[in-house]
Structure formats: C-alpha cells, structure tokens
Design a protein that fits this description.
heterodimer, A: 396 residues, alpha/beta, Rossmann fold, six-stranded mixed β-sheet, 14 strands, globular, B: 260 residues, TIM Barrel, 13% strand
C-alpha cells in the first residue's frame, strides 16, 4: 500500500481530493530540486535582502525590560519587513518556486489580509496573476488591506460560505485550486494544509530563527532562555522556533488566541481546547464538536482566528518540546497599548498575544535571563479595531 | 459477491446521492424509498460536514441545511438501521475523513457494518492515506471506494489496483456541481482502469441530464448524480420524494438500454 508522507509524529499527511494529488507531488518534486539549487537560493537571498529588507533587526527593548524588572527582552522585528509582516518571507519563496515551475497565477487565502497583501505584492513584482480569497466578515474588518490588494493588481474574492472567515477562505482557495491546476499555484500562507506545505512554509520562515540565533550570539554571546511567538496556523512561530529545536535549554513558547477565554466558546486556542482531527489536508489538533464538525472560532485577531494548528506544532506539543499558552483578547489589547507607549512600536494584534505572555513571565524571571519575542507584524491595520474595542468610534 | 457488486450485476447502474437530514431525516427516508422504488441500483447517503471542501455551492448548502436542522452521525445511524427494514438497495456513506475519525474510525466502521451500510466514499482520503481506514473497512466487510480524477494520469493504474466495491471516476476538474458539458476523455481513463481491476467503475461530478448519463454510460458501468438531485431537495423541501423519484426513474431509463 502507498505510504503516507509528510508526517510529524502522527500529524500531517495529505488528506486532500485525488484531483490535487499530482499538483502537490509536482510541488514536492520541484521544491526538493530547487531548495538545494544555488541559483534559486541566490535569487531568493537577493529578494530577502534587497526587496524585503532582511535581515530584520533584533532590538533590545530596554525600557520595557527595566519597566518589567526581570528578564532582558529582545524583539525580533518582522514588522519592519516590506509589507509589514513575516508573511513576505514565505511568499517570496513560494512565488519564486511557482515561477520556476512555469506557473503564471497565484491564489491565496487570507485572514487579516497580511498574507493576501504579501501574495499580491509578490505577484506584482514577478508579473503573475493573483486571486485572493478572504472571508466576507474579514473583508469588512480589514477593508484597508482589501484596498491594498486591489491596488497591487489582485482580485479579492469575498467568501460567504460557513463562518465567512479564514477557514472558509482556505476551503474556497482549495476548491479553486481543484478547478484550475495547470497554470495556478496555491500560495498557502501558513505551516498547514497537506504535505509539502507545512515543510515548505517552515523552511522559508526558518530565516527568522536563523537570524535570531546569529544576532543573539553577536549581542549577548549566548542563546536566549526563551523564544516567544504567536500561533494561529503557526508560521511565524515555527520560523522563530526552528533553529532552536535542538537547543534543549531554550524554552519555546507559542501563544494562542484565547479570545474571550478558554472556558468560553468564543476562543481560537486550538492546543488548549481542540482535539485530534483531520481537516484542510492534515491531521492535527482542531476545535470541533463531538461529531467532528469544525467549530466556529473567535479571536479579536483575524490572523489567529483559525480552528486548527500546523502539524509540526502539534508534534512539538506532543513531545513536550514547545509549550502552548492561551492569551485572551484583553491581555493582547493591553500589550498592544503597552508596547506602543513604552517602546514607541505599534505591534500587530496577533504579535501582541506573544508580547502579553512576555509581559507576564519576564518579571518572574531573573535579571540575567534573556527572552526573544517575535514581533510578527506591525499594528497599523489594527488601530481602528482596537479603538472600537476601547469604545472609540473611529473608522479607517 | 459483495452487495455493491450486485448493484452492477444487471446492466448500467444508476447511483443517486442525497444529503441525510436535508431538510430532516423523515424526508430523507421518503426520498431513499422513492429512489429505491424507481430503479436506483446503489444509493449514496451523504453525512453532512461543516466544511465540505470537495463540494460546490449546491451540496455545501445542503450540508448546512442538514446540520442546522440538528442531524448528527448518531441520528443518521439510527435512521439507516430503521430504513434498512424496507430498503434492500445497496447503500454507501459519502462523508469526510474527520466525521469518521472523530467518531473513532473503528467504532464508526463497525456501526456501518451493523446497520447495513456496504461501503464508504471519503473524498479527502487519497491513495496515500487509505491505510488510515482501509484495513478497518476490510475487517468489517465494508468497501472503501477510491476516486480517480482527470488529473490522476500515472496514478490511475495504482488506484485502480487498490479498488474495492467500485471505482469512482471524477468526470471533471473542480468541485461537485451541475455542468453543461464534460470534456474529459472518460473513455481513455476507463480503459486504464479496466486494465488494472475487475471491479466496476462509475462516473460522477457534473452529470444532470439523461443525455449526459447516456454518454457516460457508454464507457462506465454506472452513473452517479448528486447536485441535480440535491437541487430538487432544496426546491421541494419536505415534498421532494416524488420529484426525486420521477427524476431517478427517468435517468435509470435513459441508461437501461445501453449494452454492457
């Protein structure tokens, strides 16, 4: 019998319609060829450095550190990348790969709009067609990003099915891919979906931990004691963790969106409230009811509002290598405001989940300890929503 | 001979699909009886899933109607046990991997065997993931029906070799739904299938008219129709058994004179 591929422990695999199987096999073969191709890697490195603005800074948050009075806090500034988030790392890699495969059209799903904007950007740069699927609910929450994608030349398709959020955008992008494969690459935005996506996206995002490690050794002469990142599907988190997985003394902490709390139904904390299932091409943990119907999830952050988590995170959770902690809307909003006032940096509400947990644990750690928090994106897109959360009626 | 094999034993098979619980299970019971009485050779019963990624808008909407009507896997098991007293036509479940897995795969599959379900169609379980469910199906005497798509190319032979029950030939790219024309070279696909398995094959996706059914039945052993029937269920609601019965009769007639 043909063997399953792309497993992380029991997680992962390729649970997709037969129509897509040759497309993912073609992608896997192309990736295995190009990942070691010097010409491909040279071009990707050039795009990272000259276009996206890498390496991103590892910034010592001195005021925050002194204010909290515990561990020394460093921020990995993925918010300073072109398009304002870590998403561009993966998109440049996949778009370049798709181009080498002879594809002329990119499709993508997006939640908050960051991955959609990044994909539309890469498509514009590389002269490719682009269609982005976005839950209708999210097109309203993130109207500015919808405008940006259209400005960049992409078509934005509002998805009305299901809960009209990120999971439905993924479903619709998969449906679109089954209807048009020959010229189209599905540029999946997180470390999820069928093999080889969790591996490809991880590899392109792993530049984050590679840089943190190098920069930390330069600045401190040693590795950090903990690395923190927010987790929805988990791409910035796996990127931040990857090169530290073998360094057992470095705590890896993923911060999930607990919404209104993990004891409520209005949550998106998959590791803390979900159970093992099969959805969107992978076996992993999902928020679901007893009959396996996928649960409607909730978070203030459109980018973390997803009922599943990438299979490699599920595995790191199983073996106890990484910890996954819930952070509520309230805690994230407080951290969003705190970093703005303390360091003059407005973080994405997604990244504010990781900051919130750093604010919680730093004071409990000794002064000599060091933590690195990945600031996955910038918060301009969230200002109107946070103002509304605080009762100020402003619109972008 | 398995029950599914019997469905193909006398001429071209007509295989209608219906989503269980759309709009309620009493109506589904009437529909299934009407299908059986009007010449259905095998009936595909859909267990609704919240996020059916292989379905077009028509069956997506049926899944939502059924779930919001409160149908569950347990209620569907009870319904099948009950209807099996009257309906002898072979039946298979069509659902998604998570519905089976989250129930406990072996528990789900053994219940299927108990209540008289003959096979499973799982559109998000390709050849590479069959091992998750196939050994359990074999153990409990169910057929796990594999799917072959227009993009399968070199995989057709591999999949056909593993075929149980019958092979489901997906006629077109994309998701389920009515199509005005089908351009795939079904004849060429079926030829490769026949070289690699003695199990029958049936074509589905996009078929709605008697003319399309006749065309497909020239190549395959059976024809599967889903969205066109689910459209009737959406249109007629609790009164849909009669129009669906009439439709099944017309479709069965359209393919009945085509020689094997």
């Amino acid at each position: 019998m043909t063997k399953s591929k792309g497993r992380f422990g029991v997680h992962g695999g390729q649970y997709i319609p037969e129509t897509l199987m040759n497309a993912v096999i073609e992608l896997e073969n192309a990736y295995n060829f190009y990942k070691d191709d010097p010409d491909f890697n040279k071009e990707l490195q050039r795009l990272f450095n000259e276009y996206a603005g890498r390496p991103s800074l590892l910034y010592y948050a001195e005021k925050m550190t002194k204010d909290l009075g515990g561990a020394k806090i460093y921020l990995k500034r993925e918010d300073l990348n072109h398009t304002g988030a870590h998403k561009i790392n993966n998109v440049l890699g996949q778009a370049l790969l798709a181009k080498r495969m002879g594809k002329t059209r990119l499709i993508a799903e997006t939640g908050a709009g960051q991955h959609g904007v990044a994909t539309a950007t890469a498509a514009a740069l590389m002269g490719m067609e682009c269609v982005v699927f976005m839950g209708e609910e999210d097109t309203k929450r993130q109207a500015l990003n919808v405008y940006k994608m259209r400005l960049l030349g992409a078509d934005v398709v509002p998805v009305k099915s299901g809960t009209a959020t990120l999971k439905d955008a993924v479903s619709e992008a998969m449906r679109e891919w089954t209807s048009r494969i020959s010229d189209t690459h599905y540029c999946l935005g997180s470390v999820m979906g069928p093999h080889p996506f969790p591996t490809i996206v991880r590899d392109f995002q792993a530049v984050i931990s590679k840089e943190i490690k190098q920069q930390m050794l330069e600045k401190e002469g040693r590795l950090p004691d903990a690395v923190l990142a927010c987790v929805g599907g988990g791409s910035n988190a796996i990127g931040s963790f990857y090169h530290f997985i073998g360094d057992k003394d470095v705590r890896l902490i993923g911060c999930e969106a607990a919404g209104r709390g993990i004891d409520t139904f209005e949550t998106a904390a998959t590791m803390n409230t979900g159970r093992l299932g099969i959805f969107h091409g992978m076996k992993s943990y999902f928020c679901q009811d007893k009959y396996g119907q996928i649960a409607p999830v909730y978070s203030i952050s459109a980018g973390l509002d997803y009922p599943g988590v990438g299979p490699e995170h599920a595995y790191l959770h199983d073996i106890g290598r990484a910890e996954y902690v819930p952070v509520t809307d309230d805690e994230a909003v407080n951290a969003f405001e705190y970093l703005s006032k303390t360091e003059g940096i407005i973080p994405a509400i997604e990244s504010a989940h990781a900051l919130a947990y750093a604010i919680k644990i730093a004071p409990q750690m000794e002064k000599g300890k060091i933590i690195a928090v990945t600031l996955s994106g910038r918060g301009d897109k969230d200002c109107a929503a946070i103002a509304r959360y605080r009762g100020e009626d402003i619109y972008e | 001979m398995s029950n599914i094999a019997k469905a193909f034993a006398s001429g071209k098979a007509f295989i209608p699909f219906i989503t269980c619980g759309d709009p309620d299970l009493d109506t589904t019971a009437e529909i299934v009886k009407a299908m059986s009485e009007n010449g259905a050779d095998l009936i595909e019963l859909g267990i609704p899933f919240s996020d059916p990624t292989a379905e077009g808008p028509v069956i997506q909407a049926a899944n939502l109607r059924a779930l919001s009507g409160g149908v569950t896997t347990d209620k569907i098991f009870d319904f099948v046990r009950d209807i099996r007293k009257d309906v002898k036509t072979p039946m298979v479940f069509m659902t998604y991997a998570n519905v089976v897995f989250s129930y406990g795969s072996e528990r789900f599959i053994s219940y299927c065997a108990d209540i008289g379900i003959d096979g499973l169609i799982l559109p998000d379980v390709p050849l590479e993931e069959r091992e998750e469910f196939e050994p359990l199906c074999k153990k409990h005497g169910l057929d796990l029906v594999p799917l072959i798509a227009p993009t399968s190319k070199g995989r057709i032979a591999l999949i056909a070799k593993e075929s149980e029950g019958f092979t489901y030939v997906v006629s077109s790219l994309g998701v389920t739904g009515v199509r005005s024309e089908i351009n795939t070279d079904i004849g060429a696909m079926v030829q490769i299938i026949r070289e690699n398995t003695s199990k029958p094959c049936a074509v589905g996706f996009g078929i709605s008219t008697p003319e399309q059914a006749r065309e497909m039945a020239k190549y395959a052993d059976g024809v599967i129709v889903g969205s066109a029937i689910v459209k009737l269920a959406a249109q007629f609601g609790k009164e849909s058994a009669k129009p669906i019965g009439d439709y099944v009769k017309a479709m069965k007639q359209a393919i009945s004179d085509i020689a094997d």
